[in-house]
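Hi everyone,

Forwarding the result from last night's run.
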Amino acid sequence: MAIQGEKPDSAFYSTTLNSRISGYDRLSERITYALGYPLVNVEVHKNQLYENIAIACEMYTKFAGYTTEYLVFDSNIYEKGKGIRLDKLFTNTPDLCAHYTSVNVNLEELVPTTLTTRISADSATGVNAGYQEVYQINVADEELDPTEFVIKFIDKDSSHTAVRKVLVTVQHLTGAPGTSTVDYTEHSILYTSDDDLGTFALQLSGANEEIVQFMVEPNHDITTGLMDVIITSTDRLEKTRLVNLSGLAFGAYDALVNNYRKVIDIFNFEEGSTSGINTLFTIEQTLAQQTYMSYSMGNYGFDLVSWYIVREWLDTREKMLTQRRSYEFNEHTQYLRFYPEPKSERFYGVLGVYLEKPIEWLVHEAWIYQYALALTKISVGRVRTKYAGTTLFGGGSLDTEILAEGKEEKKELEERLYEGAPGFGDADPPMFFIG
């Protein structure tokens, strides 16, 4: 690694919650400093450092690097026989779809651009049916492309309308040929008729997949077969002085990995109820009254042990009679399935999940630094063992003890992670001390 010049004091002022570590590059510097750089050369490539940090992040998120979130469930977006992908619920949850961090934006003008396209679909024979292009963006040019769109469908005969909001993310790799990866999320879909008027999708085209086409497939129930599609890009920037979008992120989106944060596991699901607050004649209310009477007016009614046993019986009854839905979650596909599956009646619920922390938060964790440092010691030690016995200028020899040191530290850190020792994992800090 190249020799660095002296940095000012301000580059090192740092606390746990206001850390100078903002990414892999700064964390890799801290690791090399701990190994003696820049006074001595460290036999490690920057790619090795980044890979060690990535391994540490993967280990940490497996056992400790998560947050507890509550997602708003809507049965209307559940696909029968398939389930629901949980990132679709992020847009239903206000805390996750409207959270911004580290924004540095200075704009002169914000000018939405609107394009109207008329498409057709013959309801009787299906002529011209299928997806048709209504809008496109070129991700290879120098223009700053919009990412947030409002799409409105209008049936020309019945004047029925459907409106939705679409967020689009595109990653384009230049080269010969270039490639692109595109993804989108729809939310806040509203329509005045019984059914939605069309289906939205994205398609890549061009020699280097630089063109992103917005495609719409009309619903064949459109009365005359004609429909207007109006697309408005709500974040199109016409003039800017300073824009730093790298810090802009939704609470459920990890901008550094260019993907949604993944759900590790689900710990609870509560289905919404339309019965209001009328619980006067329920079994739970009767038990609560009996328990209160036993303590306030003598030994009458249930005690706490009896109340607990009856509650266990009620829970068993709900499971046996399928009054409460059971669920199955696949962490790899991120799909959730319910048994029994939701029927035509729409309902809402609250889903409690463990959500992986974004990388921007992970690099601040002390365990990440220490584990990546241990892995780097192992990497450096293995390089030095290849030249064991070599005599250096001045009669010195290579120190290979760093290999054993790194292995020992790696083992201890993994034990702390598995066992959840205080100071590691997500253990709560102590609120009081006795001594």
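Residues 104-248 form one domain.

Cheers,
N.
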